[in-house]
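Bit of a strange request maybe. I'm writing a small parser for structure token strings and I need a real example to test against, not something I typed by hand. Could someone generate the tokens for this chain?
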Amino acid sequence: MEIWINPACSKCRSALSVLDAEGAEYTVRRYLEDVPSPEEIRAVLDRLGLEPWDITRTQEPEAKELGLKEWARDAGSRERWITALAARPKLIQRPIITAQDGSAVVARTDEAVRDALGR
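Reply from user aminoacidic:
Good idea to test on real output. This should exercise your parser:
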């Protein structure tokens, strides 16, 4: 199990606390420092069953600079979104946990973290 975190994020710290309390074995990836490649983002999206716009923090200043709210959300635009996330990892929603069963979850609640643990 791996968890993508930003240490400054309270949701990420909360997720780590739940994992520790449950005695989970996991690897931490500080994705702002160890930036995921487009291929890794595609793989996580496949595991999540989501599209890149579903995990984009559209309220971030960088998102507003790019005008992401106006970008098309369709198959033809998917790679544009993935490229933006790889170039600006701060736009990736957090934390993301990749579960043992090959799935993944955006773990913004304690319940979501526990769900990932049960997979």
